[in-house]
């Protein structure tokens, strides 16, 4: 009845397992997604099933805007494509 570590995929024995978010980790493998520092039951924050340390949890109210993943760039590309299509229609 041994389970696999969600982070490294290797077998986790009861003595070293950490059950969090319905997943099993080695205690050593439960790390912040950003800086890889080792977390524990008390120090971690979870978002979308991923563990973060307090400093890197994306929704920390102390650091208002840390959610810049380049989403705005995709919108710009779409606008450019639409403009090109419109120009072709005018030439025809
Ligand atoms: Zn592991
Ligand atoms: Zn971190």
Automatic annotation (TrEMBL):
Residues 3-63 form the LIM zinc-binding domain. SUPFAM superfamilies: Glucocorticoid receptor-like (DNA-binding domain). InterPro entries: Znf_LIM (IPR001781). Signal peptide: none annotated. Gene3D superfamilies: Cysteine Rich Protein. Keywords: LIM domain, Metal-binding, Zinc. This is Enolase-phosphatase e1. It comes from Anaeramoeba flamelloides.
């Amino acid at each position: 009845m041994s389970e696999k570590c969600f982070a490294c995929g290797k077998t986790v024995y009861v003595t070293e397992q950490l059950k969090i978010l319905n997943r099993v980790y080695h205690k050593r493998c439960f790390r912040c997604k950003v800086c890889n520092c080792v977390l524990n039951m008390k120090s971690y924050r979870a978002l979308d099933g991923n563990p973060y340390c307090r400093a890197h949890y994306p929704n920390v109210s102390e650091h208002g805007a840390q959610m810049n993943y380049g989403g705005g760039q995709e919108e710009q590309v779409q606008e450019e494509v639409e403009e090109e299509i419109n120009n072709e229609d005018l030439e025809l």
